[in-house]
Amino acid sequence: MGTETLATGSGRMFRYAFGSLLLLAGMSLLVAHGLEWLDLEPKLSRALQGGAICALGTALGAVPVLVIRRMPLALSDSLLGFGAGVMLAATAFSLIVPGIAAAEKLGMSPFAASGLISLGIMLGAFGLFLVDRKVSGASPEMLNGSVEHPIIPPRIWLFVFAIIAHNIPEGMAVGVSAGGGMPDADSLAMGIALQDVPEGLVIALVLAGAGMSRFKAFLIGAASGLVEPVFALLCAWLVSLAELLLPLGLALAAGAMLLVVTHEIIPESRRHGHDKLASLGLLIGFCLMMVMDTALA
Asked: Domain range spanning residue 286?
């Protein structure tokens, strides 16, 4: 009887997972047609498409939680390292280097251009640091709604909110590069979408492991990437208003992403002792994103 129940439950979960994939595919087609109907400016449309691809990557990553509850720590740390490598390469080749080039096109000397990008990096990192402080200072009452009957531990919600906050600079990067007409904007969006796949899975698995239903954990994991198309469109619109905002916007996004990688992702990937696997994942992710940014751009 127990075996039959397990088989029935597994079959149901697989059907849920397959149905969710079909639903995501259908929603992607609807969004694509919706973007055409909006008739946005080409740069804004490109930014929104890139942000939507990133959000879809997050949603796809959350699908496996419908089938599995836990992921081996070694694999999780390897995927986190891979994501860190992708983001580091994207920061260097899609944000900082093009930002310096864009500043020089405005008539700045190499020294002034590098100084402007350095200032933007520091401001971007500081801005995200303030967001992190705000999230970390959230009270258990605000996170759970009730202290007397907590459902999910506050630290779990803090983790989820932190990852959602970290999706903001990714959306910024996509929007700034698309709004500025950068040639590698599409490869940047694809690279960030790859990095978002394990991110969505981690959120969903953490929530499911804390006692939330698998389907609800999947919905929250999938929805965590929706901030990316919003900020992609916003930043693309802002960049289109003034030329100086392009290099500065690229630098702000680079600083925020650097802080995410060094302060959160890399330490988390090494927390369970899988340093070598995390480093290998980082190298693979870096090289893959570098190829996408240079050879395939």
From this structure: 2-294
